[in-house]
Amino acid sequence: MCRHVGYLGPPVGLDELLLRPSHGLLEQTWAPNDMRLGGTINVDGFGVGWYRADRAEPSRYRAVGPMWADENFAALAPEVSAETLVGAIRSATRSTSAERTACAPFRAGRWLFSHNGSVPGWPDALAELAEKLDPVRLLASEAPVDSATVWALLSHRLFEGQSPADAVRDTLVEVVRAVPDARMNMLLSDGNLLIATTWTHSLSVCRTDRAVVIASEPFELPAVARDQRDGSVREESSWHAVPDGHLVVADREETSLTPLPDIELRDS
Ligand code: GLN
């Protein structure tokens, strides 16, 4: 299954966060540690979106194929730094195609979104839910992949004005009610917040006194994100695995973990 990472902290180079670290997203392309329920490598494309202080909407780079093979990204990454970013590498779900538009992060307005998981039976399984969506936005959801339909459902809630944490939770609930074996690790950012879910896939959080990082798999933090005092990572600010069935909300100050309503869902 795909891997993703969200970062909030001091400006970090895309290469420092994604390419250089031991077990960073680049390494997870060919050697992920915790792929569950199918999939062994993440070579069907990748993407990164980042926020600039002078622009409301995030910038984005996406490409089909493995991250290691993209010379343009290798050249671009050291030139770009950001205080907030979302990165993703893709292992395409069966019956979806490997194309650039199917690679996370998906984007609308100031939002960036990534989905690690699958919705079996897509698209038919989500057809009823999608009926409420504005057809223009649905068409603009751009890609022939289950994650793009999930993004259309979630962004509909965001643009209706629902709070981001509620919108993420309610989207997960409606998708899992419709498709009980859906796998729904999601990651959302607006530049100031990271919101993530665990629903059958791995996720870890690391908060230092300078940064917070949420990632499918722990990796070596870049120096700029480590604790200020000694440049190390203190015990309390090392990586923590997020238990399954949780919603994570992190801003620059704090992280909260809330259980998702899994029991009613899984029993119903
Ligand atoms: N279903 C999504 C896709 O096909 C995500 C896949 C994954 O998590 N491996 O891109």
Structural write-up:
By secondary structure, this protein is an alpha+beta fold. It has a single domain (3-267), classed as Aminohydrolase, N-terminal nucleophile (Ntn) domain (Glutamine Phosphoribosylpyrophosphate, subunit 1, domain 1). Helix content is 24%, strand content 27%. It has helices at residues 14-19, 25-30, 71-76, 127-130, 135-140, 146-159, 164-178, 262-267, and strands spanning 3-13, 46-50, 59-63, 81-89, 106-108, 111-118, 183-189, 194-198, 204-207, 212-215, 240-241, 246-250, 255-259. A seven-stranded antiparallel β-sheet has the order 3-2-4-1-10-9-11. The protein has a six-stranded antiparallel β-sheet with strand order 5-6-7-8-12-13, covered by helices on one side. β12 (246-250) and β13 form a beta hairpin. The relative contact order is 0.17. The mean pLDDT is 90. Bound molecules: glutamine. Glutamine binds at residues 1-2, 39, 90-93, 96, 102, 115-118, 145-147.
| Rg result | 17 Å
Major beta sheet, strand line-up: 3-2-4-1-10-9-11
The percentage of residues in β strands lies in 25-35%
Sheet with the most strands, sense and barrel status: 7 strands, antiparallel
Oligomer: single chain
| Helix/strand class | alpha+beta
According to CATH, the fold-level topology is Glutamine Phosphoribosylpyrophosphate, subunit 1, domain 1
Tally the structural domains: 1
